[in-house]
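User: Some background: our group keeps a shared notebook of sequences we're curious about, and every so often someone picks one and asks for a predicted structure to add to the entry. Today it's my turn. The entry only has the sequence so far, pasted here. Could you supply the structure so I can complete it?
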Amino acid sequence: MSIISIRSFESDLAFLDDATLLITGGTGSFGKMLTQTLLDRANLRRLIIFSRDELKQYEMEQSFSNHPKMSNLRFFIGDVRDRNRLDMALRGVDFVIHAAALKHVPIAEYNPFECIKTNIFGAQNLAEAAIGCGVKKIIALSTDKAASPINLYGASKLASDKIFVAANALGGEQDFTCSVVRYGNVLGSRGSVVPFFNKLIADGTDHLPITDMRMTRFWITLRQGVDFVLSNLDMMQGGEIYIPKIPSMKVSDMARCLAPDLELRETGIRPGEKLHEQMITRDDGRQTIALEDRYIITPQFRFWSDKHYTDHDATHVAEDFDYSSDTNKEWLDDAHFRELLTRI
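Assistant: Of course. Here's the predicted structure to add to the notebook entry:
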């Protein structure tokens, strides 16, 4: 194992000049950071926020009201479960970044029908509507939980990933491609363990709850996640699943770093929760190539070739390769973890 330097995935966004881009689930943590990045660094003709919560849209609109590119921002109420609404929203759209999902693992376990409607049927609706409206590219956000899933959320995102990969064969002669981004836990996002721990500390707790002291996770900042998605939107050929090279850390070590004087109490693993997370299984490893800062699970299409990535010095990983948070070669120490916190 080695201690890492913090990677940046920032790329040139000139390919978005005068384009229209739509973000599904655009009022979430990722969508807000992505919107800020696109308004600051890209020259889009239109940026459309597609989501179903009018209050969040109103609050988001107010937060960007003084931005010099505010006139390029549009808000569209809708749900990915509604195919007709997607047909309306995607007219004239060039690129889609698909962030809409039900993501809470225990809630998905107890509300399976709702999770399936959004994460699977919503993915199908988006792919079909995008083809019908002449969208050029979709990049969909996935999760480490989609690799060898044991919970419904992970299984639903694996199904979503399969939908977007297969959609590349459905566009006919259209200029239409879909790819997927898969990464780990996002520091600073809603639902992240760091804000949860910090709230407990601020409220004067005498301990921090840890589901299992051995538990490990991959970690990425919101900024890194946004930049990683945009860099893949630029380079994608269609059908790839992109995975960033990011560090692991024990959740218990993270808790000790945040509050070294507090007791840690084990509470037991929650329904559908893994001890360690994978982003590439050994079976997927046979289709995986490595770039300097990311892995790519390549699609099993007869027409697909990884020659596109020769300029990026792509190499094939070992036959028995897998990518798991407990066997990762890159780990966060306290100093690097605190450095990541300063970036949130």
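Suggested note for the entry: The chain has one domain: 2-184+222-246+280-319. The mean pLDDT is 93.
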